[in-house]
């Protein structure tokens, strides 16, 4: 496990850790932020809320690495950008997180990271890009139906992610 992924995973688990089944959360039952649907897809079979509750941190980390970190090609992004994109992927879904990144760098927004997106990110200033992604995430949060219920928590998460992203490297 790379140091960058380990640091990003630790941050995500601060916000996603523990079993939750909030009646207003459209994701339903989650543990370590892994939904029943995600766990079912990962395991390739039907799972129950009890299976979600019994999910280990180790398996959650494997899911996050394969389905979120690697899907967003975070190892190819500058550290602070990888950090905020990974958090966005966990919180908003991979496709939406990639589209937020693509919109922030001004390339076609298709939800898939390819050479054009990688090149645009490489030519951007990481601090400015992280700020732009964060601003776009805040607008997205505010547009969601459950903002009244979860908005303050989402905002805290985003501000924490932004703060860590800025301190992630001295090259900002």
TrEMBL record:
It comes from the Bacteria. InterPro entries: Lysozyme-like_dom_sf, Peptidoglycan-bd_3, TtsA-like_GH18_dom. Pfam families: Glyco_hydro_108, PG_binding_3. This is Uncharacterized protein. It comes from Glycocaulis alkaliphilus.
